[in-house]
Design brief:
296 residues, four-stranded antiparallel sheet, 54% strand
Length: 296
Amino acid sequence: IYRTTFDTATGTFTEAELVIKVDNPSYLALEGDMLYAVSEGGRDDNSALNAFRYDSTTDSYTLLSRQPTRGASPCYVALHKGYAYTANYTGGSLTAFKLQSDGSLGEPQLKQFSTPEVQSHIHGIFEAADGKSIYVTDLGRDAVYEIEAPLTLRHTTHIEKGSGPRHMVVAKKMAYLINEYSGKVTQLKESRGGLEVVGSFASDSVGGRGSADIHLSPDGRFLYASNRLKADGVSTFEVKKDGSLREAWGTCAGNLMRATQNGRGVSGDAVNTVKYWDTMAGGYRSLRYENLVQVF
C-alpha cells in the first residue's frame, strides 16, 4: 500500500511511498487511525481482511489482526455500525467482522448468496441514506440486497437480467447503480419495501462491458461513472431536481479505470496485457493495465 499527497491547487502529487506490505490489497477502508485492507486471494485459504493501526509518532502502520474472509476473492471492504464487511466476489458471499475496542477484527461471520443453480458474485457494500442498513450488489444474480447488521436480509431488488450490478452511490432517497455488463446507470428510489427501480441511463455506449465505478460530486449536482475495455473514460451526468439524469459529457481517459473518486480517475497494476474469460461473451478478452492516477 502506497501513500501520496495531492495538491488540489496545482493538481500534482508527491512521490508515492510504500507504507504497508501486504498481499494483494485491492480495496481499503479508513476510519480514524485505522486502515482496513482486503487480501484478494483467489481461494478461501488465501483471502483475508487485515486491520492496521497508524502511529503518528513513528509515522508507520502496525498490523493489529488478520482474519480469513471464508469466501474467495474479497474485492471490497466497508465499515458499518461497528462491523467491517467484505464482498467476496468468487466466493459469492458477504463476511461481517465485529470491530473490537482497539479496532482489531472479531471472528468472521459469513452469509452465502450462491446456490447450486446460480453463482453469486458479490461486488460492493454501500450504506443506506439513513445509516440503518447496507446495500450489497450481486453481479452474478443481477440483484441488490438490503442487509441489516450484522447479516439479516431485509429486501432484494432485482435488476434487469445480464446487467451485472457492480457499485452504487446513495444520496438522500435516491441511489444510483453502475452495471458492469450492460453499461447502464440504474436509478433507484429508497422506500419502506426496499429499493425500487425508477429508470436507467446509458453510460457505456460502445459495448465495452466493463463499467466500473460511480460517484456523486460533493454538491450532488453531477454523477460520474467510469467505463473500461472500450473507449475507457468517465461519463458525466447532470442530476436533475427529480433525481433523473441528463448526460452532460464524457471524458476519454485512454486507460483502464477500475475506480473513481469525485471525478478523479484511478487505474491500477503494472503496465501489462492480460487475458480473461468473459462468460457472458463466451470468449477471451484482453486488458491493458497502467499504473497511473489521472486527474480531471
